[in-house]
Amino acid sequence: MTVERTASPLAAQQPERGFLPVSVLPARGAPGGSGFPARQRPAARRTPALPLLLVDATAALTAAPALPHPLLTAPLLLAVLWLNALAALYRQAAVPAVLDELPALCARITVTWCALAALVAALSPAHAPSARTLLTGCALQTAASCAGRGLVHWRRRRMLVRNPAAALVVGPAATAQRVAAAFLRRPGCGLRPVGVLADDTAGGAGLPVLSTDEEVQRAVVQNGVRAVLLVGLVGEHGALVRELAESGCALWEIDAEMPSYDPPLSPAYEQADRTAYDLSGTATGKGPAPHDGPGSMALAHTGPPAYEPSTSHLFYPRTPRERIAGFPCRRLEVGRRPMSPAKRALDVLVSGALLLLAAPVLLACALVLRISEGPGVVFRQERIGEYGLPFTLLKFRTHRPADEHEAATRWSVAGERDMSRFCRFLRRTSLDELPQLWNVFRGDMSLVGPRPERPYFVAGFSRTYPGYAARHRMRTGITGLAQIQGLRGDTSIEDRARFDNAYIDDWSLWQDICILLRTAAALVRPTGS
């Protein structure tokens, strides 16, 4: 088996507009930071989980007399605390409310009591608790837990009103002023904007616009800033925002966009839903349908757009989306999302087993390609993976580009006319992807994750489609949530980015298993990739 390699060169300059394809904030220690002295760093105010833990423990002890045996008190207590922790019921909510937690509390208390009852019935049927005992215990524990949590949350909300956290709003001046005004009209949200950090100053009347690091340092020290609200791109102030986050400021991403009510056939809708753009922003598709994109992307310039990989990122923690002052928001943290050991174990076990089982198929495909297509049956191409780091992706060669530039910049799809019948069969059945199992086994990729793309297109898509750069918060994969939704080949890039980010935000091991099962089922009705 012979191997050929096609890799796209990375340009040395940075993109002229937009933001870096993957990096949201500059790396630690990058030039241009504010350099806060240690004594001037703002102290973040954090509400510990201890009061809520004590409340739930007290509620479990309150309902313990209803248990058939005192030895069951410890299992009841530990099980409830563990289930509540898994449900993130001890996290710091922006504006806590016991009614929002009531369904989750009731469900976990009920599950715990039913599990204990089943255990007692299995070990000692004579001491099995009655239905009345179960109802009494669940009601007592739920009432005590809700009452205690309600008191804790009430005190927390009063503290937010009396002593709101000073915040800086980062983004375009006009949008930042609008968001700041909305927060100031809602003092109960617990955040009080004191300034706007923007590259432009044309934001109209409102809070002072801070444009230099010295002004930000002065505002932080004088107002005791404890939160940063991101309503757009951080621009050249990325290093300063990173320092604020690392010094203890809470970082919130605020979705300040107003919903669109354009009818489905309006020009605005058609313009937004086109699937293929050249890298200068000109639409090349013929219509608004998600599958009407062309087989190749028109190029507005001769060289590929710049792509500069970085290991510095913001990632979204696995917590539910909240609302503050009516705006959808979520808490961000600086650093890399640690990969779950269970996900990596699943990758190694499944990819290793499939490599052994599919070895005859791999050998047969390589042999037929060698005889029919000539040397170079394995195609090696540079793709962008987790945190924007490049890696070499392996595939069976089904198409021979004219040169390296075409291989790096051509948007190819299944069903091209110059493919042989066997190559089209490999594309249609996704057998050309089998060598990527070795990428998964090595750790370059995962079984499930956003599909990796070439640097040329990553740079262009990141400047054109909001949210595309955030896909690289997790290791790329062979299949993903976007693929099982039919977003393969020449389909909407915007839709892919939305599904990929939804997968990352809601990740769980069970979701990976479901995606793998649905991918296996989809192979029965292949549509190409």
Output the helix-strand order: EHHHHEHEEHEHEHEEEHHEEHHHEHEHHH
Choose one word for the global shape: flat
Q: Gyration radius, to the nearest Å?
A: 27 Å
Provide the structure class. Answer: alpha/beta
Distance between the termini: 24 Å
Number of strands: 13
Helix content: 40-55%
Largest sheet: 8 strands, mixed
Mean pLDDT: 75
Low-confidence stretches: 1-34, 37-45, 260-313
Residue share in β-strands: 5-15%
In DSSP terms (H or I, runs of 4 or more residues), the helix count works out at 17
Protein name: Exopolysaccharide biosynthesis polyprenyl glycosylphosphotransferase
Domain Bacterial sugar transferase: 343-524
Pfam family, one: Bac_transf
InterPro entries: Bact_transf
What does this structure look like?
Residues 343-524 form the Bacterial sugar transferase domain. This is Exopolysaccharide biosynthesis polyprenyl glycosylphosphotransferase. Pfam families: Bac_transf. The chain has 529 residues and is an alpha/beta fold. 42% of the residues lie in helices and 12% in strands.
Topology:
Layout: E1 3-6, H1 50-63, H2 73-86, H3 98-123, H4 131-162, E2 165-170, H5 173-185, E3 191-197, E4 209-210, H6 213-223, E5 225-230, H7 238-246, E6 250-254, H8 267-272, E7 314-315, E8 322-324, E9 327-334, H9 341-357, H10 359-373, E10 378-384, E11 390-396, H11 404-409, H12 421-429, H13 436-442, E12 446-448, H14 455-464, E13 477-479, H15 481-484, H16 493-505, H17 509-522
Parallel strand pairs: 1-10, 2-3, 2-5, 3-4, 5-6, 12-13
Antiparallel strand pairs: 6-9, 7-9, 8-9, 10-11
Helix pairs in contact: 1-2, 1-4, 2-3, 3-4, 9-13
